[in-house]
Amino acid sequence: MNIAAIDTVWVVVAAVLVLLMQAGFAALEMGLSRMKNAGAVAAKIIVNLALAVVVFWAIGYAIAFGDGNGFAGATAWFLEIGGDQVASLSYSGVDEATKFFFEAMFAAVALAIVWGTMLDRARFVTYVPIAILFVGLIYPVVVHWVWGGGWLYEQGFQDFAGSGVVHVTGAFVGIAGAIVIGARLGKYRDGRPQPIPGHSMPLAILGVLILWVGWMGFNAGSFLGAVGKPIGSVVVVTLIAGAFGVIGAMVMAKILVGSFDIGMLGNGAIASLGAIAGPCAFIEPWAGAVVGLVAGCIMVPAVLLIDRLRVDDPIGVMASHGMGGVVGVLAAGFFSTAEAADALGGRPGLFYGGGLDQLGWQIVGLAAIGAFAFIAGWIMFTLVKVTMGLRAPEADEVSGLDISEHGMFGYPEQFIDVIGANPEEVVSDATAAGAAR
Questions:
Q1: How confident is the model over 99-144, as pLDDT tens digits?
Q2: Radius of gyration of the chain (CA)
């Protein structure tokens, strides 16, 4: 049996599933945007994917996984395929190019999380400097701390598939951007938040389901191998957590909002899937259910609180990815089993005889990642704001970013006269013309 070949095939398939998550983000964000901005969201997703790949290839991978010190790596610039493999990923037998593919897709997901907080109002041109700074510096520094042999790795911080590395980092940088850019026009009136509904909830939920599928590769692929790895267990834990997240959000939405809010249901899934990413390889299915339920329940009041704090987060990034990530990081300190911890070179959690050691370092790591991400994000967005302008002009925001930024509408027949856009009218006109003859 060629173990390396089997491992490589699985990691490539898992990376493709993570790549598919970009389609999920596109559908989710387009659905939750207003119709006049749907095309701009589509452009944002594909351009940011391209930027993430290029920047991570050039410098991000080296800073994240290259040999260096406790803060950052400094080897493997431009990947250097054919050279020595980075030591931090040497536990996996797959080739360096396959490892890069998988990790680059993680970087793209983190960047997508960031931009979700600034829907309907950010200038398209700002994507370039933000992508360079986030994917080339902020995100890989956190990756190095945890997965690249950095200082949190040395202290035993456990974050298997990125509750902290991906979701907390992306959400805390994103919420800093939301504060810097300000709320959408009309979001707050007389000091009170006003709902600005997305134009297609079915499209948004389709996005959630695509993300859910992608999360299977996101979590189970993080072994960077298949043979002898408990892939099935991770998939089941992930599935159960997502299900309980939806149930938790459903109950809490009914209690706090008074209805089974569709957006809350979708974000319940996202919050729980972000939460289970970190501990998924360390915990048992019952604990996955608890993690998912807690994340789904916390998400709903978090959405309401952030709204009342006058921070405009249109798709609930902080409440779903951010709070879900917080739950996941802490869960590894409570529920990590001794058997799994031993197999992965970690420590058991509080409920499995590990005492406060692991939980303590989970709290330290969470605080460090959150603080670094928020401060670095605030500095980054402020620099972009004062140098080139972060927000679209008010007139463009009113007319829609589709036409002002891209010169076309995502849904042209809704805004301009498109011949043939309504076939029944064409038939009616033809019939009338025939009668006139």
A1: 999 999 999 999 999 999 999 999 999 999 999 999 999 999 999 9
A2: 22
> What is the three-class DSSP state of 73?
strand
Question: Which residue(s) pair with 391 in the sheet?
Answer: 122
Q: Measuring CA to CA, which residue among 175, 178, 136 is closest to residue 374?
A: 175
Residue-range definition of the domain harbouring residue 100 = 3-398
Indicate whether 428 belongs to any domain.
no
Q: Is residue 426 part of a domain?
A: no
In CATH, what number is assigned to the domain containing residue 369? 1.10.3430.10
Task: Give, for 188, the enclosing helix (H) or strand (E).
Answer: strand 188-189
- Mind listing the pLDDT tens digit for each residue in 330-388? 999 999 999 999 999 999 999 999 999 999 999 999 999 999 999 999 999 999 999 99
Pairing of strands 188-189, 192-193: antiparallel
Q: Which 3 state secondary structure label does DSSP give 189?
A: strand
Task: Assess contact for 176 and 371: CB atoms under 8 A.
Answer: no
Name the domain count of the chain: 1
Taking the C-alpha atoms of residue 65 and residue 368, their distance in angstroms, rounded to an integer, is 19
Q: What sections of 221-309 are H helices per DSSP?
A: 231-256, 262-277, 285-308
